[in-house]
Sequence to fold (415 residues):
Amino acid sequence: MRLLSSIQGIVAYEHPKQGFNDLQTADFENVYLDLDMVCPAHVLERLGKTDFKRDFLTRVAEDPMRLVECASPILECAVKNGLKVSLAKAPSLSKNSKRKDLIETIRVLAKESIKLCGKYGIEKLIVPPVCIGDGDDKEFYLSLLPITREHHVKILLENQCKNINGHFVRGKFSDADEVRTSLTELRGTEEACFGFAFNFSNMNLCGQNPYEFLTALKDDVDAVLLSDNDGEQDARLLPFTSASLKGCNVDWTNLVRGVRASGFDGDVVLEYADSAKAVSPLLKPSFLSYAKEMGNYFLWQFEMEKTIAKYSSRVLFGAGNMCRNYMLNYGDQYPPLYTCDNNSANWGKNFEGLEVKNPEELKALPKDTAIFICNVYYREIEAQLKEMGITNPIERFNDEYLPQYPFERLPLATR
Fold:
């Protein structure tokens, strides 16, 4: 998987250098460009109206052929800072738009976005649908096919939601069967031309189950866009920040389970423009470092089962609830040689079918056997292993988002 940060709320259109510097300092290598930056939906909605006011953000809306010209300085700055723009999104109308007269404008903007991607080596482009209501977008997407071939860009559909009188409901591509049918019709014999971007924020606003959606699509998903919201407001917040009463308002559990079960191995995009805009410029570098750690956390969770599977031999460290949860979910498919524990009272006993050994026994392991820490004191135990001179691969197992759990947890052990 590859982690991408959105640049919305971080990179200023007129002065992009500092934002890209901050992203590079935070160790992001790949970024996501929403071309709403150069052609915002609210500007498109005002086109032709009496209250339309011209400024630098209206240039592309008035003349879509200027999109490449206006977006190029942003991309040039990203390249100079060593950042790769791996995914972009074409301009679109707002969720409650009724401007059928702008459909041709959106078509031109999509084509210009493809040209931009081709020029800068951007591999994939999210192109939202143009039909107002539940119309057929097949002709629109097929009209983009010749130019996608020319510039070697993959078009991604994206699940939408509609705003009806302040309430969000399912829009185009919010049904997995509809997505599969549309992709089959659009691909024909050219599967590489079309794919899908899973927008978790839109799904949460519609109250859908991400596990069911992701497992139904499996290999069709090229990107997962992550952001938090309260299920009522269309916000783009950093994960775990829209919480109330010590709980989250989004279904992180079924998201992680769905990504794992689907075998997804594409781009993971952090979208957190509203969080980023709320942070003082003085705190932005520290905030972005935290955002990078958040992204790494999700990559780790998404790839948990793949990490276990890549080792032919493994042992566990810990003889408690986390070890028991490992054995319940993965003990049969990926059996450990044994587990070990710092509590000497457990040595020589059997726990969940595993012998509990003294950590000193780890020194005799073959060097390719991985040690999975099954205890929340990861850093402390990892330091212990390194002090012991252990050079085996050390991995961290986590039981926050497992497929199943025992009915009762073991009592907390004294340390």
In short: The mean pLDDT is 90. The chain is about 35% helix and 15% strand. The first helix runs from residue 17 to 25. The first strand starts at residue 2 and ends at 6.
